[in-house]
Specification:
alpha+beta; 4 domains; 5-stranded antiparallel beta sheet; 10% strand; 12 strands; elongated
Length: 620
């Protein structure tokens, strides 16, 4: 076989430089330097040899008007109806073309213009493009004497039907979710964003899988520097395969060791379109129903699409409960351990007596009890997620019975600890983002250990460390706590609370984009047309605006753009607002820890917290 290839390539003067010892990542680049042979038999032999003469490779050779033709395609990647149309045009309708006076003969340009009655037809001149096209579902049309070949778009593999998203369920809103087909996902976005400025740019990532990745943004809204940074980070990825969007997420995020997500992922097309309208950039990966959007702010993790599909008063009332659930889910077990271990005097006497009577039969301290319960709860969650749906529900019922009844009767855990763990689990399920749920699950155990070691001082120390990390964390150059650190009064309309649509005139400030106006002014009703609370809020807002403009008399100018990580100056300097916010966070946490421990804590905790608080003030 080797002697046959040597004689074959010596006659054609082609050196493909590809053999069995060639690294798999270099096969396609080397084939791109191999010219397409002008002999049909040689081209067919090369295709069979490169693809290993696979069973799903179909090559049909025909002869028309004295010219030898051949079509090649991979059976499971093409649409059989399109292949049938192509064969009919070559075999059955060719006499009609000849009667019309068109002489195709062996002219490839005539074949490209009038010989193929299908959609996209491209000309290729090397074997790398030919093999890549076949693997993408295209059909190759070859002829004897051609120095090039034609690739006909006949993609048509099996795909899952559009269904309701499983991770972002809403009561009111769209029921459509992304699927694994990237072309279908692009269509779902374009159906909702019908504007010529919507840009879709394709990239190929993965030396072996050759996965198609689309970068989607709205030109004129998204910052050009942000778009260039996203493309540059994706192009720098050198990996053999990309099977899911998280492969890209792990490579392009700013801080790879942070437990907090820095790239937003969603199954909902309406959420992606909303992010695009705010100036963000979407990243679509072929083969996954999750779409990534950047940059990500912490407030997005607690915002649900349903907040914008119902009356703003309801969203104003419900969103703070998610923040409360975040505090309960992260700190309630650690707070229970700290109080029952070091600060029993903080509890009312009746409650303290009840907890002590419950813990009388428990043979180990509260920290061990909390860790055992948390580990058991995490195992139950993993078991319920991995098993089939029917068995997963059974596992949840059995686990609840074992923990809630049998473990308490056996004296392994106290009823108070069961209540704490149950409240923690229920609060963690209130997050719209599953990524935030996993982050809180990860931070819960270290906070328990710090509370067991130092009491409330350890708990507040853990809070300080989390705040320091969040203040310094960035997502594609944008502060993670944008709107709160640095603080922006304009962005409070959609941060902790959700204001009505008619007051959210501007978009979030992401990397200093020029177009921050979302809608025209005076969209809402005037105070005379409103009644009740809406009129009161409108009057307060108008009065604050009048007093602000009257006191300071400053002209209305566009706010300076926020410097991002891709700006050289921002890599060396930090904003004064972030430094001020960090000081406030540290002093506030230390102050509350000092107040709790001085009033209700032990003597040892008083000395530790007092030294930390007053020592920090002296250093400042």
């Amino acid at each position: 076989m080797r002697g046959f290839w040597q004689r074959l390539f010596r006659r054609q003067q082609i050196n493909p430089k590809v053999n069995s010892d060639t690294p798999i990542q270099e096969v396609i680049p080397l084939l791109s330097t191999t010219s397409y042979p002008d002999q049909l038999s040689v081209a067919v032999a090369m295709i069979k040899e490169i693809l290993g003469n696979s069973d799903d490779l179909v090559i049909r050779e025909i002869k028309i008007e004295g010219t030898a033709l051949a079509i090649a395609f991979i059976e499971d990647l093409t649409d059989k109806k399109l292949i049938k149309v192509l064969l009919e045009s070559l075999l059955l309708k060719r006499p009609l073309v000849k009667q019309a006076g068109v002489n195709l003969a062996s002219n490839i340009e005539h074949w490209k213009e009038m010989g193929v009655p299908l959609g996209e037809v491209t000309t290729i001149s090397n074997m790398g493009e030919l093999i890549t096209g076949l693997l993408n579902g295209d059909t190759c049309l070859m002829a004897d004497g051609w120095s090039q070949a034609l690739l006909v778009d006949t993609k048509g593999w099996e795909k899952r039907a559009i269904s309701e998203p499983q991770t972002s369920v809403v009561v009111r809103g769209s029921r459509e979710g992304f699927v694994e087909n990237i072309r279908t996902n692009i269509a779902l976005i374009r159906r909702r964003l019908r504007h010529p400025n919507l840009r879709v740019e394709s990239l190929v990532v993965g030396d072996v899988t050759n996965t198609c990745v689309f970068v989607v943004y709205v030109d004129g809204i998204a910052n050009n520097k942000l778009v260039a940074e996203v493309q540059e980070r994706i192009k720098r990825i050198k990996i053999d395969g990309v099977l899911e969007g998280h492969y890209l997420e792990a490579m392009i995020e700013d801080n790879r060791f942070s437990p907090f997500p820095q790239v937003w992922s969603t199954e909902r097309p309406d959420s992606v379109v909303a992010d695009l309208l705010e100036g963000r950039v979407a990243i679509l990966t072929d083969g996954t129903p999750f779409v990534l959007t950047v940059p990500l702010q912490f407030a997005m993790l607690l915002q649900s699409p349903e907040d914008y599909y119902q009356r703003w008063v309801l969203s104003l009332f419900l969103r703070p409960f998610r923040y409360l659930g975040l505090v309960i889910s992260a700190f309630l077990p650690a707070l229970y351990v700290a109080i029952t271990t070091y600060h029993q005097e903080m509890l009312p006497t009746s409650l303290l007596v009840s907890i002590l009577m419950q813990r009388e039969r428990i043979p180990y301290p509260a920290v061990v009890e909390a860790l055992v319960m948390q580990i058991t709860f995490e195992i139950l969650l993993e078991a319920g997620a991995r098993l089939p749906r029917a068995l997963g529900q059974a596992i949840g019922i059995v686990g609840a019975l074992v923990i809630g009844d049998a473990a308490v009767r056996a004296g392994l855990v106290s009823p108070a600890m069961v209540i704490v763990v149950a409240a923690t689990a229920i609060a963690s399920f209130a997050f719209p983002s599953f990524d935030l749920t996993n982050t809180v699950r990860l931070l819960r155990i270290p906070l328990i250990l710090m509370a067991a070691a130092l009491g409330l001082f350890g708990l507040f120390s853990g809070l300080i460390l989390i705040l320091i990390h969040l203040v310094n964390l960035r997502s594609f150059g944008t502060p993670y706590l944008q709107g709160m650190a640095p603080f922006s009064l304009a962005e409070q309309k959609d941060y902790l609370f959700r204001g009505p649509w008619w007051i959210m005139r501007t978009r979030p400030k992401l990397g200093g984009q020029d177009n921050i106006t979302r809608q025209a002014s005076h969209q809402g009703p005037t105070p005379q047309e409103m009644s009740g609370g809406e009129a009161l809020i409108a009057r307060i807002v108008q009065r604050i605006k009048r007093k602000t403009t009257g006191c300071y008399q400053r002209p209305r100018t566009r706010q300076k753009p926020i410097k991002t990580d891709w700006d050289e100056t921002s890599r060396r300097e930090s904003t004064k607002s972030e430094t001020f916010t960090l000081d406030i966070a540290f002093l506030g946490a230390a102050y509350f820890s000092d107040v709790f421990t001085r009033l209700l804590g032990s003597t040892r905790d008083k000395r530790i917290s007092g030294r930390l608080f007053f020592g920090y003030r002296q250093r400042k």
